[in-house]
Amino acid sequence: MAFLSVRQVTKRFGDVPAVDAVDLEVPRGAFFALLGPSGCGKTTLLRMIAGFAQPDGGTLFIDGANMNGVPAHRRPTNMVFQSYAIFPHLNVFDNVAYGLRKERLGKQALRARVEAMLATVRLEGLESRRADELSGGQRQRVALARALAKQPKILLLDEPLGALDKRLREAMQVELRALQRTLGITFLLVTHDQEEALSMADQVAVMSGGRILQIASPRELYERPVCREVADFIGQINFFHATVKHIADDTVTANAGVLGIVTLPRASFGFPFAVGDHVLLALRPERITLQRGSVAGQITAASFLGERSHYQVKIAGRSEPVFVASSGAAPQGPVLLGWAPDALIALPFTA
Amino acid sequence: MKSLRAYALAYLAFLYLPVLFLPLFSFNNSRFIAFPFTGFTTRWYSTLFADDAMLHALGNSLEVGAVTALLSTLLGLLAAKAVTQYRLRGTGALLGFVSLPLFIPDIVLGIALLLLLGAIGFPLSLAGVALGHASLCVPFALTVLIARFEGFDRNLEEASADLGEGAWMTFWRVTFPLVLPGIAASLLLTFITSFDEFLLAYFLSGTEATLPVYIWGQLRFPDRLPMVLALGALILVASVALVVLAEWARNLGVAPGKKSIGA
């Protein structure tokens, strides 16, 4: 059994299942992310793992122990809240020491422990500050130190970086990742920000409508999404309708309408299919070249973003533009869209 | 602008001028409450503090006020916690129902309580007054405390549970310190409401008088009037002081939880 094991866990609010028969296995020491749009059930699932909500069905195990019916204060998990939930009537030291009361440490040992935690999150010297005297980033670190001080088996992070500005968020992503590697504690991150999930986690579960669509490494999610929803949610992507024409040993030929007849590796199909099937072909913007290819188009919009540029290209027979990202010099006028065969991702057809 | 200012001054005068006659005439060296002043004296204050019946009534009022304050604040605390923690259906109607005593004329409530206590054989006493006052004061306590409970982040209590504390220790270490200013404000407000209340006390107190009931009794004796003015002046000052204190406590560290969110 995995370190955290979620088996057929369901939670309903009224008749609506917020979490619908979810299975999840998180290995010890992993940095795992639950990714999905708001209302997808990821926070409800996290709250069930923390013990703030009880599942209506299914079972939760942490380190082999059944957690059903175990209240939050007896679980080996600690949480960094989205609002940080820093106790406003206590200073930084007392916030971090809050959970250590039951360990009955001596005064010296307690001080040493708290100071070590504050050093870990680089907040030395702020012990006597009150919550309202801290910046957003500092509060986030206090919340982190307070949760880690309990030496949890799993650290739960609920949208921990949502309230920070972009620059601070990016710095904290790197720092959290490094902290997780150093401490070796299992981190479970909940976020709606795909960039956050992809940059920090080893494994990401993409959720939608209370169900898990796919669990994979960030690279695999990006390169091998299993359905349109995942492909759409992770980064930008172009979809094309296609019909399977011919299946050879290693390749598949399909009629992709506006793209013409295309050939792609058979391995690009992660699902069973047959000749005549309707499928979706997905193409990432950065896998399309504007220099040489088979599909003529016209650039309708371009935006320069520093290390790369984004283009919208109009092609005949398609109302929405094709998104292209390129690091090369901005071409002028008509372009030819091209792609490598393995850039095409085949997905089951959905309307 | 000018006429507006004049209006505001007239408004304040209308509200407070009558009340200011109390302290003014309490220092007048005459038994008759009339201009012109005949001289300054503090003797009404000295006779006041030499009056054992007054001191006894004062003691009764303090006692009833303290019991009322504790009882209604405790009831308000439990109800406010329940109302803010569990968003039950019908909460709004329930709160309206709880505040009903505020809108029932005191004289109706007084007669009703008089009949009720008589029917169940509860003797007319200060205890009865305290119970009656508590029914008046719970809505005040509830209003002040609900506002306080709603003012802080629910995640704070969850954070405490998450860090290993059960329900009681969470209440003691997080909820209580955060609502403490609200509790103080509630105690002060309910105390002053009870202390100033006349009708219920008049109906329910039996042979023991609270201070307002005692004052009512004294009004029959013209000789005692200046002393009553002195007493009124003192009550006025104490009431204002308590209300100011209560307001200060109520606003102490307003919305503590809100500050922990965001930038």
Describe the structure.
The complex is a heterodimer of chains A (351) and B (263). Chain A has 351 residues and is an alpha+beta fold. Chain A is 23% helix and 34% strand. In chain A, helix 3 crosses helix 4. The longest helix of chain A has 18 residues, at 166-183. Chain B is 75% helix and 0% strand. Residues 255-263 of chain B have low confidence and may be disordered. Chain B has one domain: MetI-like fold (Orthogonal Bundle). Chain A binds chain B through residues 50-52, 71-74, 77-79, 81-89, 98-99, 101-102, 131-132, 135-136, 139, 146-147, 150, 163, 165, and chain B through 152-153, 155-156, 158-166, 170, 173-174, 177-178, 253, 256-257, 259-263.
Can you summarize this structure?
The complex is a heterodimer of chains A (351) and B (263). Chain A is 23% helix and 34% strand. Chain A has helices at residues 42-50, 92-97, 107-120, 136-148, 166-183, 194-200, 218-223, 228-233, and strands spanning 4-13, 16-26, 31-35, 57-62, 65-66, 77-80, 154-158, 186-191, 203-208, 211-216, 238-247, 251-255, 261-265, 278-283, 288-289, 295-304, 309-315, 322-326, 334-339, 345-348.
Task: Spell out the key features of this protein.
heterodimer; A: alpha+beta; Rossmann fold; OB fold (Dihydrolipoamide Acetyltransferase, E2P); 6-stranded mixed sheet; 5-stranded antiparallel sheet; B: mainly alpha; MetI-like fold; disordered C terminus
CATH architecture of chain B: Orthogonal Bundle
User: What is the typical, i.e. mean, pLDDT of chain A?
Assistant: 90
What is the overall silhouette of chain A?
elongated
The largest inter-chain interface, given as chain pair and residues per side, is: A-B, 33 and 26 residues
Integer tally of domains of chain B = 1
Low-pLDDT stretches of chain B = 255-263
Largest sheet of chain B: none
Structural class of chain A: alpha+beta
Strand order of the largest sheet of chain A: 6-7-8-3-9-10
Range of strand content of chain B: under 5%
Structural class of chain B: mainly alpha
> Level of helix content of chain B?
over 70%
